[in-house]
Amino acid sequence: TIGDPNAQETTYTCAEVGDHSITITISDDDFEYCMDDWTVPVTCVEGDGGDLCEGVDCDDVNQCTDNECNPASGACINEPVQDGTPCDLLGLGDGVCEAGECVEEDLCEGVTCDDTGNDCTVSMCNIDTGVCDEMNAEDGTSCDGGAGACSSGVCMPAGPQVDDVIVQVATLTGITASLRTAVDCPASTGGPDVMTMIFSGAIAGGSIQVTVESSAEFQTIIIVVSGLDGCWELTLPAGVTIEDLLVTLGQDVDQDFVIGLQAGDMAGNFGGIDESVVVVEPVPTSADVQVSLSFDQDTDLDLYVDEPDGTRIFFGNPSSSSGGTLDLDSNPACSIDGINQENISWSSAPSGEYIVLVDYYQACVVDPVISTVTIFSNEQLLGTFTESFVASDVSSGSNPREVTRFTVP
């Protein structure tokens, strides 16, 4: 039965227990034209229609839900409370509700820690307090754009660095080394020991060939300079027992130095440092443009450079009107001096294209010769260029080999 069909809200009383459906029709013109109807499923239960929630316990023992009984059905409704509501986590407090669960409160959420721009401190949020704690960066960390190193949280001016002397290290096949700060340079950990061989003297702005050899395989090579901070690290694609390197010096090097080489195996174990003295021959160190030649045998190779106007500078014409000068000529006519370096430089080089050539003038030894041309312009290393010569390449100046070209703006 329907309690009051004309009321906006009324009751339906079942005749018997079970599932029923009620079709309800509504109208706003006394059911003449404008009507709508729908069918409502209902389930009738024993009772007189009293309080269905009486005696119903909806507590789900969860601090993070709101619990209530639906009076229309007697069913419990357990809705999550608002995220961030405090709750007691495992009896220890300091919990918050999240998606209906009591979880540990993230005190660092939304906290931004500012270390005030100090390269030598690290500011991090303390998860127990939500407060930013400041810690010192590891001693030796680079700071001030590489001009300093951290010490006890303070950026101290860096001492002389390895790249003040050595500006590039590469294999003959072109694999280049990366510069590392002192803190990243490895100590000896029982890896392979090496023997180092240097095949020439050295000049500022030139290159030397260095051979590293070991009885055990190595894959990483470390290059240091005694008394200087930092190192060069070169990683090979596979393990080897011997490797040839090109070590290029800066243009400001004006004294002998001690180079050290160290090898690491495939497991990351490094051996001791093998040291050698590098003898630096004097050449002008204020050159605007510098072209140098180094070679790994006591033989007679000659360096040629053609200037933009066609003037050729070489042993037969050691200077030009533009100021270009052959200021080092090694092993002329097999008069061996062991320097194995030649150098042409300009204090103010004219603009235009330059052509660099190398001539195998006389074979003073039988072995093949590896040569390297190194070019600096405006204090920048333009590149290194390696060539190989054998006895049949001897031309005694009649047919020098072009190595490369470069342009001075």
How much helix, percentage-wise, in residues? under 10%
Topology as H/E string? Answer: EEEEEEEEEEEEEEEEEEEEEEEEEEEEEE
Beta-strand percentage range: over 45%
Number of strands: 30
Backbone structural class: mainly beta
What would your notes on this structure say?
By secondary structure, this protein is mainly beta. Helix content is 0%, strand content 47%. A hairpin with a 5-residue loop joins β23 (300-306) and β24 (312-313). The radius of gyration is 42 Å and the shape is elongated. It starts with 17 loop residues before the first strand and ends with a strand. The model has no long low-confidence stretch (mean pLDDT 90).
Fold blueprint:
Layout: E1 18-27, E2 35-44, E3 65-69, E4 76-80, E5 86-87, E6 95-98, E7 101-104, E8 121-125, E9 132-136, E10 142-143, E11 148-151, E12 154-157, E13 166-171, E14 178-180, E15 195-198, E16 202-203, E17 207-225, E18 231-249, E19 257-264, E20 274-278, E21 280-281, E22 289-295, E23 300-306, E24 312-313, E25 325-328, E26 341-346, E27 352-362, E28 369-377, E29 380-389, E30 401-408
Parallel strand pairs: 16-21
Antiparallel strand pairs: 1-2, 3-4, 5-6, 6-7, 8-9, 10-11, 11-12, 13-18, 14-18, 15-17, 17-18, 17-19, 19-20, 22-26, 22-28, 23-24, 23-27, 25-26, 27-30, 28-29
